[in-house]
Amino acid sequence: MPTTHTVRVHPSADDLPREDQLAWKLAELAADPVDVTPEVTDMVINRVIDNASVAVASLTRAPVVAARAQALSHPYVPGSTVFGSPLTTRTSPEWAAWANGVAVRELDFHDTFLAAEYSHPGDNIPPVLAVAQHAGTSGHDFVRGVATGYEIQVDLARAISLHAHKIDHVAHLGPSAAAGIGTLLGLPAQVIFQAVGQALHTTTATRQSRKGRISTWKAYAPAFAGKVAVEAVDRAMRGQTSPEPIYEGEDGVIAWLLDGPDASYEVMLPDVGEPKTAILDTFTKEHSAEYQAQALIDLARALHAEHPYLADPANVARIVIHTSHHTHYVIGSGANDPQKYDPHASRETLDHSVPYIFTVALQDGGWHHVASYAPERAARPDTVELWQKVTTAEDAEWTRRYHSTDPAEKAFGARVEIELADGGRIVRELAVADAHPLGARPFARADYVRKFRTLADGLVEPEEVERFLDLAQRLPELAAGELRELTVVAAPGVLESVPSPRGLFELGGN
């Protein structure tokens, strides 16, 4: 059974033993040689396919193009592959983690876990894979490393809220990715401990990256954490140490960035010898939008089918979405961000505007990862008019269900109340998205494969689609040489269709 570890601030005079520090507990978990279960292995394969899907779909988007250009400025042998580039093109592993991390994150379209903190644990895969390819490990070892990354990020997200103190969620990703790499490489706990501490210390940043007019850094933040994790492991392997106790110190993360000197957290971790299964508690996205919007998109498309007249703003007096604290205050009108109602806002901002997302899904009866965010779509006059009539409100019951530890009760949905212009009223609710494990159409392997085929269409040659899917679905059997080919090569002309920006790294020798 999992063990609950009490984590609190200790003054320096306590000289808290290393073995009692949370970072050490995470390192011990990562160093545990326990194997993964078949169910976990299958889900790792699903998420590798899922990540590749959304990475391919973003290959020509500006943040991804820039990150790829940076990575390709650091060629290295044996090195790691970069999404879209030829199999023979290799770059330094930390830069591959960077470029691939941006590609995976750019469309906000991969997996999620929501608890005390929110997270996208699929962000662990790019840094672990980059190191696995560079180091020449097997597919089996890669699966073990990914399972650790998911376990630690999910366990931290269950127990420690970062957003309550306006700290970005990637502060849990730095330690989890470093630990996952430690498992991959079979490093001893004392080395992983130092890497975890360094990764946490260097990935604490404010949530302004997800507030107001959201910038392209939204996609870069988790990629930066993955890159930092690779570098932290490298330093730790060379014998370099980290600040400690990083969580519990009187000048540490808890004391000054989180709940303060009197805080106490209960972090539950698997015991030694117990399988790491947290990936099974995570869920992916059918739609390219913030996860709390998934159920609302599904609800909106159902309303569109049943009441198509709702698409006309003249027929609607107002729409109130009653939902959880998080949805209301982060992506709803409770954020008090006027940008969430701005038809000229960036894609990143619209992705974090549930009033916008619900409006478009209600009018269109669906959601598209490109068309639904297009500037001309956001600025359509009837959309703007209806959008201004949509607000959110916190509902105590939805907040309780959001934080429930009972999987059958935990929900990220809402109740929508629509007041019609003629005085009529429509009330509908949906607790979980259709693709959720408890939803109307839970995602299974066939859905992940279909998502990849759909998003790769026109960007990847059919033979390359089949090559990748064959490798991915044989993941635990792959030898080092095959794992080094676990990437997706873009069709001829795709990468060349967009200009590659020049920066600092291109200045040398010119």
Automatic annotation (TrEMBL):
It is an enzyme of class 4 (lyase). InterPro entries: MmgE/PrpD_sf, MmgE/PrpD_sf_1, MmgE/PrpD_sf_2, MmgE_PrpD, MmgE_PrpD_C, MmgE_PrpD_N. It catalyses: (2S,3S)-2-methylcitrate = 2-methyl-cis-aconitate + H2O. Keywords: Lyase. Residues 287-475 form the MmgE/PrpD C-terminal domain. GO terms for molecular function: 2-methylcitrate dehydratase activity. Its EC number is 4.2.1.79. The keyword Lyase applies. Residues 21-265 form the MmgE/PrpD N-terminal domain. The keyword Ribonucleoprotein does not apply. Monomer. Belongs to the PrpD family. This is 2-methylcitrate dehydratase. The gene is prpD.
